[in-house]
Amino acid sequence: MNPPTISVISPTYNEAENVESLVRSITAALDGIEHEIIIVDDDSPDRTWERAESLRPEFPRLRVLRRFGDPGLSQSVLAGMASSIGEVLAVIDADGQHDERVLPDMLALITSDSADVVVGTRAAEGGSYGDWSRSRRFVSWVATLIAKLLLRVPVSDPMSGFFAVSRRTYTELGPSINPRGFKILLEFVGRRRPGLRVAEVGFTFRNRTHGETKMSPSVIRAYLLAVVELRAGRQVKGEFVLYALVGLSGVVLNLIVFSIAEATNLPNFESGISDWLDPIEWSVLLGIQVAIIWNFILNNSFTFWERRFVGRQLPLGFLLFEGVSLLGLVINLGVFQFLQSTGWGFDLLGREASRYLHHIAGLLVALVTNYFLNVNYTWRRRVPTA
Length: 386
Known about the structure:
Blueprint: E1 6-12, H1 19-29, E2 35-41, H2 48-53, E3 62-66, H3 73-83, E4 88-91, H4 103-111, E5 117-121, H5 134-150, E6 163-166, H6 167-173, H7 184-190, E7 198-202, H8 217-232, H9 238-263, H10 279-303, H11 313-342, H12 346-349, H13 351-378
Parallel strand pairs: 1-2, 1-4, 2-3, 5-7
Antiparallel strand pairs: 4-6, 5-6
Helix pairs in contact: 5-8, 8-9, 9-10, 9-13, 10-11, 11-13
């Protein structure tokens, strides 16, 4: 066989029912074009790799890589790219949802030196989302908006897993790509090499015939982590950013509850702890408890998705989170009381405005403390999710 012009890489996991139709459809689409097909399988329990291997006698351009460690979509794609020998590297999902018939168009744009990266997109002219529900379209729209606002990517469908790059582009950008990123396309276009030329080819998204969709809250979380890493750099831990965003939403909710409690003139008690707590601090306590409940729900179902508490484990998880949060409450009140006693900001902002500022300062100190305790204690172990 002659050296391939294009290497088509497909990462797989539990796609045994789809892999044969994938190989046949790619072969038909690239008829007359020198190519190779690389199936990169993460040691699928349904033995996708074995089914792909059985096709090799009929398809001599097919190669199969079976990976035993470090599973992941991006790692699989990079492994396939590293083993490829084509001048153009294309990536396509194995579930049949991407239209392999546009591969020649993608190839032509790169070989004619019109583009360095070509994206198969559902949002460009000639493209369609098919039978997607409104909710799934909305998620895609939000993800695209985030990428455009934060990364300024020049594509209409940054979450696409269907794209092609020139070998020169891969060679130049490969060393800087995060092997644990969400999708390699985002790594290529999000880093924005000066002069990088990006083109789009529309295609109609098809429904999966066999197997289960890989879309889950974990995928959404991985996407946000990738955007954070690309925007802020690897020095910033993405998980902390997500935790901080959840914490920020808790701060907003806290302040809302705090303000409502203040406006209702929450009464004080006549004895005990009320001897050193005035009504404003009862408002602080109420706001903190509502925020604790809110933050646990979001962190458990989003920030720490892979280690989340489920079913009967939820009460235990909440008790652990509540216990850690008690320290944050003490720190919050301590900082608030200390700043109140010093009168810091009273002359500049006035007493009422300074109270809010002191409250926010206490919340921020508690946020950092709680993050380290929750990471290293509450969600330290991987909690079974079955």
